[in-house]
Amino acid sequence: MTDTPVSRPTHPIVVGTDGSAPARQAVIFALREAQLRGTGLRAACAFEYTPTQYSGFERTAGSGPDSGPIPQQRDLVMQSVADSIKELQLQLGGPPVEVEIVCERGRPVQVLLEASRDACLLVVGSRGSGAWGRLTLGSTSTEVVHHARLPVVVVPMDDDTASS
């Protein structure tokens, strides 16, 4: 019997992240999966500026209902994503995973689908609040599941995260 080299995927795993608790769960799952597969991770984050809506990493960038767009917003969001992933990698331990960060202005679904064109897997978190919310998918994860042309994993929030 000869030892046949194990082929490793060259395509990255893409994970959607926005700074939320469900996204953190998705990043942890994606990091573990990348370690198991011996492949890289592409963390994709979408940001939009609208005067009445902001969330996730955009809040870190300092935008809000009474402020205009920040010229360095993309850089600030990218740094927040990088810091969050570095923290999660340290918590997880194990072999290091090469991480690429994609941060684009636009709708989250469009950014995720574009970022995953050459990927082997797309990972997103589920959204939900309360008992009913945990039974349904959020709008982004639902759209991704319906439009992606690759395997998709929707990571549910664990009970510890949901209660915090």
Oligomeric state of the chains present here: single chain
Structure annotation, total helices: 7
- Strand ordering within the main sheet: 3-2-1-4-5
Low-confidence stretches: 51-55, 59-63, 128-135
Structure description:
By secondary structure, the chain is of the alpha/beta class. It has one domain: 3-Layer(aba) Sandwich (Rossmann fold). Helix content is 41%, strand content 16%. It is built from seven helices and five strands, in the order βαβααβαβααβα. The chain has a five-stranded parallel beta sheet, with helices on both faces. β1, α1 and β2 form a beta-alpha-beta unit. α1 packs across α3 (73-92). The longest helix has 20 residues, at 73-92. It is globular and about 35 Å long. The protein starts with 12 loop residues before the first strand and ends with a helix.
Keywords:
5-stranded parallel β-sheet; 5 strands; alpha/beta; 7 helices
